[in-house]
Write a structure and sequence with these properties.
The chain is of the alpha+beta class. Helices cover 54% and strands 16% of the residues. The protein contains 13 helices and seven strands. Strand 3 and strand 4 form a beta hairpin. Helix 6 packs antiparallel against helix 8.
């Protein structure tokens, strides 16, 4: 197959901006993994003006070609927003490997450096808070099916936090990993999905357990945001406005959930909210300090 597909990536491989090329082949019984194509080729480059995705038929072989930039790839690695691409990176066969680029990238994923772990932990914790609080609110409004959906997603974020704590990168087969490293969270997931109780009772019990789990992870969950808040201009920690924090490139991954994360941390005594006078009498700005 590789020989038949070579002409699809050969020209790209000679481009100085191309860092590497990967091939993922369809496996019987796992066809959705390659979006039902016989093969997927991933070309990683510094930048691109070419079409991002193209579909081909090469002598009867159905193939998809994906062109991705380094920036896109690193964003997906840290944010987890394109898990399919990360799984392809884990499992793909290297066809072109400029200066060991893909080898080092795979090594980075397997070793999961502390800086990457810190940022991904902040992202997962913020999303965990959002999903859990929204689920809890829907539960109290008696919208149990909608609450179930949010609590299920909250459990996924809680599970990813457990995997990251172990120094591992969360894979697509997340619950296989969780069963090995965090049986308690796996048990919560199992109880929500196949528990004997009615949906209302299951949610009620699960929310108590998840709230306890969140509080136990609050110090690791806030660590990324805290590391940003500690960097203040000339070293003086005179607080951050919400706008200042939201504009920080380091919170891009979870800026949409930053407000609820800040309020949660304030309510739990992890961040202080300080009033500052505005130009209008009786109106104050808030600054956030550790």
């Amino acid at each position: 197959m590789e020989g038949l597909l070579r002409h699809l990536y050969q020209e790209r491989a000679s481009d100085p901006l191309t860092k590497g090329v990967l091939l993922v082949e369809k496996v019987f019984g796992q066809e959705p993994f390659t979006d039902f194509f016989d093969a997927v080729i991933i070309i990683i480059c510094e930048e691109t003006s070419a079409a991002k995705v193209k579909h081909y038929n090469c002598s009867g072989i159905e193939a998809a070609l994906h062109v991705v930039t380094e920036d896109e790839l690193f964003y997906w690695i840290l944010s987890g927003t394109n898990r399919k691409m990360i799984d392809w990176l884990f499992r793909g066969k290297i066809l072109f490997n400029k200066n060991e680029y893909i080898t080092n990238l795979k090594l980075r994923l397997s070793e999961f450096p502390a800086e990457d772990r810190l940022r991904k932990t902040g992202n997962e914790f913020a999303k965990l808070i959002r999903r859990f609080e929204d689920g809890k609110a829907l539960f109290h409004l008696h919208h149990y099916l909608d609450a179930f959906n949010h609590i299920l997603h909250a459990l996924h974020h809680l599970a990813r936090l457990s995997i990251i704590e172990e120094g591992l990168y969360p894979e697509v087969t997340l619950w296989r990993q969780v069963r090995e490293v965090d049986p308690e969270t796996y048990k919560l997931y199992h109880e929500l999905i196949v528990g004997d109780e009615g949906i209302e009772k299951r949610l009620e019990l699960l929310m108590i357990a998840i709230e306890f789990a969140i509080r136990s992870k609050i110090h690791i969950g806030k660590a990324h945001l805290a590391s940003i808040m500690e960097k203040k201009n000339d070293g003086k920690n005179d607080g951050w406005s919400y706008t200042e924090l939201a504009k920080s490139p380091e919170v891009n991954d979870y800026v949409i959930d930053l407000e609820i994360l800040l309020q949660y941390l304030v309510e739990n005594g992890q961040v202080k909210k300080v009033k500052e006078p505005s130009k209008t009498s009786g109106v104050f700005h808030y600054k956030y300090v550790l």
